[in-house]
Amino acid sequence: MMEFKVSVIDRNVFLFSFNHEADVRRAWDRRPWSIKGEHLILKKFRAYLSLNEVDFSTIVFWVQDHGLPLNKQSKENIFKIGGFLGRTLDVDLVGSRGGVWKIFFRARVEVDVSCPLYAGFPLDRDDQGLPMLWVPFKFEKLGNFCYGCGRLGHDLRSCLEEESQRIVKGNVFQGNYGNWLCVENNDFQPGFSPKVLGKLVPTEGDREVGRSVQKSNIVEASLRN
C-alpha cells in the first residue's frame, strides 16, 4: 500500500506527498487515476515551478486498437496509431493473448483533455483492392466523459453542444460516444465493430443513428505493411 499525504492547493488542485520514491514511481506508472469516476490528472511538481506553470491540459491513457490486420501489426504502426490520438509514449505488442494473431494492441498516449476522444479510425486498404476497415479504440481506466461531445470533464446533460442536446431530447437514437469506449465493456459502437465498412454513414429506419464518422472523432489512416 502506498503511503502519501494530500494537501489542498487550490480549487480542484491537490498536492500528493510520498514518503518513498518507489511509491512515486508506482503512482506515476499506474496512470490514469480517477476518484468516484472523475479523472485525476497527475503531474510531477518541482519546487522551482509556480502553480500556474503546471500544465493540466493533458492526461495519459493506455488505448487499445482492435481488429488490426496481421500485416499491419508492427511497433511502427502502433506508434503511428497512437499519434492519431495525441503523443505516443509507449506501445505494448504483447499485452493480448492470441499467439501470432493479437486480439488488440496498446499504445500509451498523452491526450489533450480539451479535445474529443477518438472512437477509432477507418483503415484505407485501396492498395490491396479491399474495402475500408473500421478499427475501433477502447480506453483503459476511462472514467466519466460526455457521451455527446466525447470530452472529459462533464456529462451529457450538462453539455452545451448541439449534438448532445439532440441526444438528451431523444432526437438521436445513437450518438457518437458511449460506454463501449471503456475496456470493461465488451461491446463496440453499434454498427462499427471491427468490420469492413460499406457506406461510412449509417441510417436506420426513420430515426437518425448519429454522425458516427464525423471528423471530430475519426482519422483516416494508411499504415505500412
TrEMBL record:
Protein name: CCHC-type domain-containing protein
Gene source species: Lithocarpus litseifolius
InterPro entries xref list: At4g02000-like, Zn_knuckle_CX2CX4HX4C, Znf_CCHC
Keywords per UniProt: Metal-binding, Zinc, Zinc-finger
Superkingdom assignment: Eukaryota
GO molecular function: nucleic acid binding; zinc ion binding
Pfam families tied to this protein: zf-CCHC_4
Domain CCHC-type: 146-159
